Amino acid sequence: MHAIVAESSDLLLWREVPDVAAEPGEILIKVSAAGVNRADLLQAGGKYPPPPAASDIIGLEVSGVVAALGDDVSEWTVGQEVCALLAGGGYAEYVAVPVGQVMPVPTNIDVHDAAALPEVACTVWSNLVMTADLTPGEVLLVHGGASGIGTHAIQVARALGNRIAVTAGSRAKLDLCAELGADILISYRDDNFVDQVRAATDGVGADVILDIMGAPYLDRNLDVLAPDGRLVIIGMQGGSPLT
Q: What is residue 106's DSSP assignment?
């Protein structure tokens, strides 16, 4: 098979590489598209080594069709459209993936577009729902509402039945957040988000804050948290809960 081999961050080459096969508990995906993540860019530049035993080929998420099943795999079928979160190896014609990291392509999503879903969907769900325990009716504050993480978080929270506040840097970005379901729109350039969220919640504040900024926002985040609020800070490696 062929794959994109990163000689450096500026030199990506299409080369023949050893074939991969589905081991027990894995499926083999014929790749239609691969996502682009910051970790991919860093790995290409030699600044982000892959995990032990992971492929040296970059690529943390893909979409495509099931090409073969490993032993003991019965919940998928050959030819089925899927997307997957990877430890590496996505920039190739084929990639073998543990079944626990594979998801069906949603019926209203083109298979090529689905390559951009796994990383953001798993990050948002694991942090908002599994870590912060976001529950229906709570107020969620999302910093960077128009970012990839932010736009997905808005849609998840809307589906769960939450009230959503967002910060963003322009009117166009805030309008996009509103279209996706945000209720409280805050320009971080012009407004104090602590004052805005407290005013919109009768002084209570946000039950959950999803933050991609980190240290610059920490003190103000703590000022706007509700008494039992949860703060989740997301970096490149995922989220860290602070309560």
A: P
What pTM value is reported for the model? 0.86
| CA gyration radius, the chain | 20
Q: Residue 243 has what pLDDT?
A: 42
What does the DSSP assignment read for 48-71? SPPPTT--SS--SEEEEEEEEE-T
Phi and psi based region of residue 42 (left: phi greater than 0; alpha: psi -120 to 50; beta: remaining): alpha
Taking only the tens place, the pLDDT of each residue in 174-220 is: 999 999 999 999 999 999 999 999 999 999 999 999 998 888 899 99
- pLDDT tens for 62-78 read 999 999 999 999 999 99
Strand 139-143 vs strand 94-98: parallel, antiparallel, or unpaired? Answer: unpaired
- Return the closest-CA partner of residue 231 out of 241, 217, 220, 223: 241
**Phi, psi (5° rounding) for residue 2?**
-115, 155
Contacts of 203 (CB under 8 A, 6+ apart): none
Asked if 142 and 158 touch (Cβ cutoff 8 Å), the reply is: no
What 3-state class would DSSP assign to 148?
helix
Tokens 């459209």, located at residue: 81
Q: How many CB atoms lie within 10 A of CB 64?
A: 26
